[in-house]
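[step 3/7] inverse_fold.run input=structure_tokens len=487
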């Protein structure tokens, strides 16, 4: 009889690993009815699914864990048989050894066998966490798929959505003091909005305009791994902090365009980001959009998501003015007021969320540029800015400050690529502003800080803050702090 643990022993040195390594072929024992699922934080997180059979644990590595839903089959990679003792193993396998990382028992119990062939294994699991019928079906080589056969883990199980557009806030002022008890207040973080979908220990990061930006932020991989098999959809802001401890939009700029994995990893070390989490949109098969802000926050806080690269900052009750003053003193962008009773409205700019800003900013579409003179000869002197409205692109003025040399170089390259002969504006520009203008197809979205709107609809004292690759020209709206209409 061949020793079924030869492969297992070949991969391990008993002097180097705390895993059980039986010295010689073990005699069959047990009742062939034990199963165990081990959560294994190795180089890549996976769950090891093991079934006792003929004296060993027949094993598969399942990268996303046991499927909670029959509609969602998971890959299971067949691995070497393990000794029966392994069913009780948890602990740390030293780095550098085979499977280096930590192992914990995710679930264990007994199973009933329905079918076992080379092509298909059908079992009913009776564990502490898992109850149900599963099939493993051989596809090719070491690859199998794992399928949940009887309904989802819970009858009311709802799979998470593929995309959710974030809810937006109306630019406004603090709610009247008499109403502030019905609101919560949060710090406004100056970064890029992102919805993070966590499933099977993997994160998918979606920007505001539904672009998959997962590759740009490798540091959030650990957030997903920390959640294990918990399925969650999170709403928050990706923020890069400057050396002064304040959010730095210009530092974040270095990260936003990068998709090359090696470069993204290098930048994650030199210009790290933090995902600041403030809402929970889905949790373990349950949508939470219909819940009130208060209930969503309670569930979010129970997840205790606080790590090196992600934080869930606290919110404040009944003290909007204090938080606003503190945010101003600390040089932060502003605060948000969120109505406690409000549900989450995807993609809507709702008066249930108000943003109150210390620094006024405005998104703009770059429609052209004027050459510089003197120190700026040969490059951009100023950018001509527009905001779309029903009539077309409306001129809102030009910006000539806030640039560094490398920003100018980058902009000049982008704008040269999209040059065109005619003005993209819906109106005639003042001659003084457009004499030497170079027009471009209005594709680039940027952001400026400014003092106020002039009576004729121009930005007063605008200063360039950076490009907004997470936004499209059609997302850009003129934000004015007007009367909040209650709806
Ligand atoms: Mn493993």
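[step 3/7] decode complete -> sequence:
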């Amino acid at each position: 009889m061949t020793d079924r643990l030869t492969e297992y022993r070949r991969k391990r040195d008993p002097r180097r690993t705390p895993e059980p390594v039986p010295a010689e072929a073990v005699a069959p024992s047990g009742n062939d009815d034990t199963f165990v699922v081990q959560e294994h934080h190795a180089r890549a997180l996976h769950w090891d699914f093991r079934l006792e059979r003929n004296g060993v644990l027949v094993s598969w590595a399942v990268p996303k864990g046991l499927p909670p839903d029959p509609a969602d089959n998971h890959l299971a990679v067949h691995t070497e048989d393990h000794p029966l003792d392994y069913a009780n193993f948890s602990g740390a396998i030293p780095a550098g050894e085979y499977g280096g990382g930590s192992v914990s028992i995710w679930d264990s119990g007994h199973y009933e066998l329905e079918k076992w062939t080379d092509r298909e294994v059908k079992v009913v699991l009776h564990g502490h966490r898992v109850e149900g019928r599963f099939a493993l079906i051989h596809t090719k080589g070491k690859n199998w798929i794992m399928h949940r056969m009887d309904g989802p883990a819970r009858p009311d199980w709802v799979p998470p959505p593929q995309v959710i557009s974030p809810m937006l806030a109306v630019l406004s002022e603090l709610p009247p003091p008499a109403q502030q008890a019905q609101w919560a207040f949060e710090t406004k973080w100056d970064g890029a909005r992102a919805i993070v979908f966590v499933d099977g220990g993997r994160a998918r990061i979606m920007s505001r305009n539904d672009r998959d930006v997962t590759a740009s932020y490798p540091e959030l991989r650990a957030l997903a791994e920390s959640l294990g098999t918990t399925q969650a959809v999170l709403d928050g802001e990706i923020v890069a902090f400057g050396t002064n401890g304040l959010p730095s939009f210009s530092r974040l700029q270095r990260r936003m365009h990068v998709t090359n994995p090696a470069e993204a990893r290098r930048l994650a070390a030199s210009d790290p980001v933090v995902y600041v989490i403030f809402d929970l949109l889905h949790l373990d098969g349950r949508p939470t959009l219909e819940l009130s802000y208060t209930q969503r926050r309670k569930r979010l806080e129970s997840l205790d998501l606080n790590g090196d690269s992600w934080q869930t900052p606290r919110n404040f009750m009944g003290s909007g003015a204090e938080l606003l003053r503190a945010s101003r003193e600390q040089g932060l962008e502003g605060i948000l007021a969120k109505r406690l009773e409000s549900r989450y409205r995807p993609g809507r700019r709702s008066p249930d969320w108000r943003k109150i800003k210390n620094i006024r900013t405005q998104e703009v579409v770059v429609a052209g540029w004027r050459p510089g003179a003197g120190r700026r000869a040969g490059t951009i002197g100023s950018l001509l800015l527009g905001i779309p409205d029903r009539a077309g692109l409306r001129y809102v003025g030009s910006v000539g400050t806030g640039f560094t040399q490398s920003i100018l170089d980058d902009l000049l390259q982008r704008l040269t690529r999209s040059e065109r002969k005619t003005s993209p504006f819906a109106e005639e520009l003042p001659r003084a502003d457009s004499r030497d203008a170079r027009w471009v197809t209005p594709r680039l979205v940027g952001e400026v800080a400014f003092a106020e709107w002039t009576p004729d609809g121009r930005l007063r004292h605008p200063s360039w803050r950076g490009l907004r690759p997470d936004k499209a020209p059609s997302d850009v709206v003129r934000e004015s702090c007007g009367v909040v209409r209650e709806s």
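[step 4/7] annotate
The pocket of manganese (II) ion is lined by residues 40, 42, 46, 48, 61, 99 (CB under 6 Å).
Residues 405-417 form the longest helix (13 residues).
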